[in-house]
Amino acid sequence: MNSKSQSGWVLNKRLVFSVLLVPVALAALIYGTIFHSTTILAKQSDETEDQQVAEPASMKLREPTIIRDATVGGLVRLDSGAIRRTYSGKPPSACPT
Predict the structure, then answer these.
(1) CB-based contact 40:66 (threshold 8 Å)
(2) CA-closest candidate to residue 44, choices 89, 77, 76
(3) 44-64 pLDDT tens trace
(4) Which DSSP state fits 62?
(5) Cα–Cα dist 4/24, whole Å
(6) Quick check: 39 and 58 in contact, CB under 8 A?
(7) Strand order in the sheet with 75-77
(8) First vs last C-alpha separation in the chain
(9) Which of these, 58, 34, 31, lies nearest to 44 by C-alpha position?
């Protein structure tokens, strides 16, 4: 093969790879946005913290909500590995850093 045809082959491989990468990226984006969710422990209000609660309240949040909460400092990872919300009601409005 001469260098011109070899160069064309490399260009075609890159084009095919790019064309195949777009649907894969879109599928990952759709999966993360719509179908991926994680269980988050809800912050208990002051009244419930005084009472003995056997099971902490938990909720399933979708990935965009988790990303927003983590960005503004609304989530913490506990020593047990669970994730807990640091607020109840309206989320914090600004990044704490």
Answers:
(1) yes
(2) 89
(3) 665 544 455 555 688 888 888
(4) E
(5) 31
(6) yes
(7) 58-62, 37-41, 83-85, 75-77
(8) 58
(9) 58
Q: Which residue has the tokens 């001469």?
A: 2
CA–CA dist 23, 19 (Å, integer): 8
Are 82 and 41 in contact, with CB atoms under 8 Å apart? yes
C-beta of residue 53 within 8 angstroms of C-beta of residue 44:
yes
Interval 60-95: pLDDT, tens: 888 888 888 888 888 999 999 899 988 877 777 765
The Cα–Cα gap between 39 and 50 comes to: 24
> Is residue 44 helix, strand or coil?
coil
Q: Is the pTM of this model over 0.85?
A: no
- The two tokens of residue 33 are 């946005």
At 60, list the tokens.
């399933």
